[in-house]
Amino acid sequence: MSRQRELANIKNWNEKNIVNDILGELRRYLKLNQLPEDKNVNGNITASGPFECVEEIKKIKEKVKKLSARRTVVEDTEAPSRSESRCGVDLFDSVARAPIAPAAPFNRHTIRHYMNNQQKPSFNAMLFDFIDASGEKDSAVYRRAYIDRRVFSKIRSDADYHPSKETAIALALALKLTRENAGELLEAAGYALSRSSVFDLIISFCIERGIFDICDVNDILEYFSLPQLGE
Fold first, then answer.
1. Distance, CA of 158 to CA of 145 (rounded, Å)
2. What backbone torsions phi and psi does residue 37 show, to the nearest 5 degrees?
3. What digits encode the pLDDT tens for the residues 184-227?
């Protein structure tokens, strides 16, 4: 075996081990971060939550039935004394007659004040702030994100342009943003990285591990049979 071929084999072996290490770490990341899921009687996957406690709901319904029956029996007999009425009969009427708290007053000034305090920069403004902070040219960023120049031109010229989630993710990767900054950029476009989505978890994993090359990210997505960026 020639020296050149031997070196090539060593390189391939090392690259294969690196890929296996990344995939193994990714599987552990998914296992730790993915939200739990349950299957209902039809076999559909549904997120588990506090409202799945069927037995507790049944118990509450039974208590309501007993209270209703008790009230009916008391109403059919002679009127109870004041002390007896405190034991659960007049309680229903007192709750029913309880005054409803009025809604807080509002007008266009309070709404505008709320919006001014809560509103964050648009996707357009935040994106170019990140590009300026990176010190790179616009062309270098959109080429590394594998985004068409015409699409990037629309983002730059239209402050209200709404990009796809894949485009926003590709730009976050191209800018090598932190997990927090990537989340802010996606939020500005109206998106988020969900722990219920394997695709989103893989993107989070890549950002947190510093895997920013779109080709490397697409290789991992392809391994999990998921849509790739730039398609």
1. 19
2. -135, 150
3. 999 999 999 988 899 999 999 999 999 999 999 999 999 999 99
